[in-house]
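Morning F.,

Quick status update on the modeling queue. The single chain you submitted on Monday has been processed. Sequence for confirmation:
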Amino acid sequence: MHAGFVLIGLAAGICGGFFGIGGAVIMIPGLVFLFDFTQHQAQGTTLAAMIPPIGLLAAWNYYAKGNVKILPAVLIALGFFFGGYIGSLLVGRVPGLMLKKLFGIFLLLCSLKLILFK
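Structure tokens below.
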């Protein structure tokens, strides 16, 4: 079972380094579908896994190639820091099934936007 968690992390890391994604798109569905986590548990566990600087090596490679804008990254991190706290307070009011459906709609809309529009 522990190897499965490592594989989810590895897949998220590879996708994170390649596409700039991983947490929501890889880890959350993996935890829900493969390990029967609730949507709340999957989201909380994913956020907890992202606390250490897991993207540091990938970000360094992007930075070394001139593909990191420091000020926007810092400002986004600041917003993510406080936004994550606010979201974690609000999500407790949302039933698990509704949260799962909202998450699916969010991913669907992102997919459609990427596929259908420039």
